[in-house]
Amino acid sequence: MRRIAANADPLAEAAGMIGLILAANQPFYPLYVWGATGQWSWLACTVLWVMPFFAAVPFVGRRSPLAGRLLLPFAGIANTVLMARLLGPEAGLELFLIPCAALGAALFRGAERVAMLAVLGLAVVAWLLAEGPPLGLFDAAGYAGLRRMNAISAIALCGLVGWLTPPAARPSSPPRA
Q1: Is 6 part of a structural domain of the chain?
Q2: Per-residue pLDDT averaged across 1-20, rounded?
Q3: Under 8 Å CB-to-CB from 126, ≥6 apart: which residues?
Q4: Are 50 and 96 in contact (CB under 8 A)?
């Protein structure tokens, strides 16, 4: 995976690695939902639409490091809003907007503040869009399990962002040649 994500820009490389990890995880999300709720929902399978976008991050990042770094949080935000609307607010999916905002803070240099603010602003707007009426797809225990799983996953994703994003690359320094 590291070879596929390799990039002269260390932040684009981190974005590529995170994108590949998320792409590899997407097919398992419906199983996680089933395990957390005890009920199968075909709506959980709609998460698969974003998999190619996550997988494309390192390839887009090779052509344009900034575009690759933008693609990752934008795909994450779009996926979060869609899944939150489909599974309902009780699922706690809007918590995934926090790691999306963390990506916005971690993947851009000082000279790229406009991109950083765009991602952070979109995450806030997305939080408002993700709200909706309860759908009642699962029982109370199922939603509690799903919310717990999504909270733990969002926290782990924030940790992954911190782990893979090189702090020395965040200042106004240009990518290495």
Answers
A1: yes
A2: 94
A3: 77, 80, 81, 97, 100
A4: no
* pLDDT bucket at 166, cuts 50 / 70 / 90: confident
What string of DSSP letters covers 61-95? HHH-HHHHHHHHHHHHHHHHHHHHHHH-GGG-GGG
Instruction: Provide the 3-class DSSP secondary structure of residue 116.
Output: helix
Closest Cα to residue 143, out of 154, 156, 134, 153? Answer: 134
Number of structural domains (the chain) is: 1
DSSP state of 162: H
> Are the beta carbons of 60 and 85 closer than 8 angstroms?
no
Q: Which two tokens stand for residue 95?
A: 């918590």
Model confidence, pTM: 0.89
Per the domain annotation, does 102 fall within a domain?
yes
Number of Cβ atoms within 10 Å of the Cβ of 36? 21
| Amino acid letter, 79 | N
Got the DSSP string for 19-74? HHHHHHHGGGHHHHHHHHHSS--GGGGGGGGGHHHHHHHHHHHHH-HHHHHHHHHH
